[in-house]
Design a protein that fits this description.
Radius of gyration: 21 Å
Number of domains: 2
Number of strands: 9
CATH architecture of the largest domain: 3-Layer(aba) Sandwich
Distance between the termini: 17 Å
Strand order of the largest sheet: 6-5-7-8-9
CATH topology of the largest domain: Rossmann fold
Helix content: 40-55%
Structural class: alpha/beta
Shape: globular
Strand content: 5-15%
């Protein structure tokens, strides 16, 4: 089968769509499929609108050689790819790993609306055809179990929580910082570290951290938490996430609108006894979902759309 992947970013770019593209590309190639990845080049320097039009024509010229289009992006690459696919009568599968409309609204208005409330309280609901909506579990890596005794020894002195990569409003960083400030004023040896370097630096940050925290206003399937689990790291996660059902027994959950609740959960996990409890829970979590599984599920969706 010939598959065209339409994406705005691709490694060494940092971000979920970049890693997702690389993962499915390699898995499909290993299965014998022909894969073409169409990522942004000069488009990055173009203004919105012109960028979409330019990418639209790039997709258009690549479509005759493709059976279907897959896009791990919901706006920059997916919109022009969608219209190009319609012109050629090709099927397109779009992965919505986040919600661009909600993220755009929060960033531009500063209104910290929860994702689950957004469509009921801020804009009219969209009429979605549920027969064309499917759920594919995110990538769960096999556990990376190593001995971090020296790291943990150092973290008993200064307990560093890694808190993601981007200071976006919907990531709720200001409330998280406020929670840490309250605890530091009480003399608790905790600190927040925001990783802004390469993916390798980000993973090293998780590896050497005490724990991971993500208290965003909404996160469908945050890769940061899945990577924390693969390193056996305890984590604090927003209850506004699609991962709650899967991870409800191993995570520490917070109300992202309540600074006091965030602070209380950080303080709770900073206890050595509680940390050991959570570490054992994470270590006992053995669910995996590899790229081979994901790509086969996407192909099954494509086959169902052909019927």
């Amino acid at each position: 089968m010939k598959i065209l992947i339409a994406t705005g970013i691709y490694p060494p770019d940092i971000g979920g769509p970049a890693q997702y593209t690389k993962g499915v590309e390699e898995a499909w190639r290993a299965q014998g499929h022909t894969v073409q990845v169409l990522s942004f080049g000069i488009e990055r320097k173009l203004p919105t609108g012109i960028r979409h039009l330019y990418y639209f024509f790039r997709v258009l010229f690549s479509l005759p050689r493709a059976d279907f289009v897959f896009s791990p992006d919901t706006f920059s690459a997916a919109i022009p790819a969608f219209f190009a696919s319609k012109l050629f009568g090709k099927k397109i599968i779009i992965r919505t790993g986040g919600d661009f409309l909600w993220e755009w609204y929060v960033e531009r208005t500063g209104d910290l609306a929860l994702l689950r409330n957004f469509y009921q309280t801020r804009v009219p609901q969209f009429n979605l055809n549920l027969e064309k909506c499917f759920v594919v579990e995110n990538y769960y890596a096999p556990p990376t179990r190593q001995n971090y005794s020296d790291i943990l020894k150092n973290n008993r002195i200064e307990k560093v929580f890694v808190g993601g990569t981007r200071e976006l409003k919907w990531k709720n960083i200001q409330r998280i910082k406020e929670a840490f400030s309250k605890l530091q004023e009480k003399g608790l040896p905790v600190s927040l570290e925001l990783q802004t370097g390469s993916r390798e630096q980000f993973l090293r940050g998780i590896e050497s951290s005490y724990a991971v925290i993500l208290a965003s206003l909404g996160d469908i399937s945050p890769n940061t938490i899945l990577e924390a689990i693969s390193y056996g790291k305890p984590f604090i996660l927003t209850r506004e996430t699609g991962l709650h059902e899967k991870l409800k027994d191993i995570g520490v959950w917070v109300d992202p609108e309540d600074v006091d609740d965030i602070a209380a959960k950080i303080e709770w996990l900073a206890s050595d006894a509680n940390y050991e409890i959570q570490s054992k829970k994470v270590e006992a979590f053995t669910f995996t979902h590899g790229w081979e599984d994901i790509t086969k599920e996407i192909l099954a969706i494509y086959e169902s759309l052909k019927l």
